[in-house]
């Protein structure tokens, strides 16, 4: 079977993984959606082998789970699990930012400013489909100067599990003005090299996002006994 022409630069498995990940994170494949290997292979015009390998990678990232009689499905997270992930984010990201701020170069600051400008424009234009990924990219650029690659890798994996919920939370709660304001305040503290202020603002920002998201999901989900 010949691979689709768009899968040419990296391995087929890499690109199937990236495409499926993007569709999960965007909400195109919602929680509980069954990912049928034969249907995906047919859609991408590839064999089932790279599809199976891609799903196994996404399982390792926590985005997919394998269930008896169903196969691979988009992972569902309980409210308790989402809260736990945000608490882990706060601990790790605050530590990354504490290491990053003193090391930030003018180029690092410019990179953060650039992505924030794109993010602001997506807010103003109401381009909801981009909010989750731009939010993740903004946070990622904040921490790149930390020189903590392993911690950053863990944070990115946690981000894969929360970005689709963050996007929904921003859309449902209407909290875009607050998020935009908090992002700029964090950046201002980074520019001023005020480590303690930047970390405090980040911790508050993650707490606010967690509370808003939990409130939105608690209101949207029926009671199923999976979360308190």
What would you say this structure looks like, in words?
This protein folds into 2 domains: 12-74, Arc Repressor Mutant, subunit A (Orthogonal Bundle), CATH 1.10.10.10; 79-220, GntR ligand-binding domain-like (Four Helix Bundle (Hemerythrin (Met), subunit A), Up-down Bundle), CATH 1.20.120.530. By secondary structure, the chain is mostly helical. A hairpin with a 3-residue loop joins strand 1 (64-67) and strand 2 (71-74). The chain contains 9 helices and 2 strands; from the N terminus they run αααββαααααα. 28% of the residues are buried. It starts with 11 loop residues before the first helix and ends in an 8-residue tail after the last helix. Helix content is 71%, strand content 4%. The model is unreliable at 1-5 and 221-228 (pLDDT under 50). It has a two-stranded antiparallel sheet. Pfam families: FCD, GntR. This is GntR family transcriptional regulator. InterPro entries: GntR_C (IPR011711), TF_FadR/GntR_C (IPR008920), Tscrpt_reg_HTH_GntR (IPR000524), WH-like_DNA-bd_sf (IPR036388), WH_DNA-bd_sf (IPR036390). GO terms for molecular function: DNA binding; DNA-binding transcription factor activity. Keywords: DNA-binding, Transcription, Transcription regulation.
Please describe the structure with a list of short key phrases separated by commas or semicolons.
single chain; about 230 residues; mainly alpha; Arc Repressor Mutant, subunit A; Four Helix Bundle (Hemerythrin (Met), subunit A); 2 domains; two-stranded antiparallel sheet; 9 helices; 2 strands; about 70% helix; about 5% strand; disordered N terminus; disordered C terminus; GntR family transcriptional regulator; WH-like_DNA-bd_sf; transcription; DNA-binding transcription factor activity
């Amino acid at each position: 079977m010949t691979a689709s022409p768009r899968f040419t630069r990296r391995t087929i498995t890499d690109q199937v993984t990236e495409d499926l990940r993007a569709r999960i994170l965007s909400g195109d494949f919602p929680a509980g959606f069954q990912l049928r290997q034969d249907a995906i292979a047919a859609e991408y015009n590839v064999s089932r082998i790279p599809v199976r390998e891609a799903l196994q990678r996404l399982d390792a990232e926590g985005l997919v789970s394998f269930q008896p009689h169903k196969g691979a499905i988009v992972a569902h997270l309980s409210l308790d699990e989402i809260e736990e992930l945000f608490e882990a984010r706060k601990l790790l990201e605050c530590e990354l930012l504490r290491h990053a701020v003193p090391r930030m170069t003018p180029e690092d600051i410019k990179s953060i400013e650039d992505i924030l400008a794109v993010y602001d424009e997506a807010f103003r234009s109401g381009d909801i489909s981009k909010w989750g990924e731009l939010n993740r990219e903004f946070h990622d650029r904040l921490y790149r100067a930390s020189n903590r690659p392993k911690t950053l890798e863990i944070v990115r994996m946690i981000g894969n599990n929360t970005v689709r919920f963050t996007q929904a939370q921003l859309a449902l709660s209407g909290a875009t003005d607050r998020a935009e304001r908090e992002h700029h305040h964090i950046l201002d503290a980074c520019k001023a090299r005020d480590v303690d202020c930047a970390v405090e603002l980040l911790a508050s920002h993650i707490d606010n996002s967690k509370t808003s998201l939990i409130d939105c999901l608690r209101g949207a989900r029926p009671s199923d006994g999976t979360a308190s």
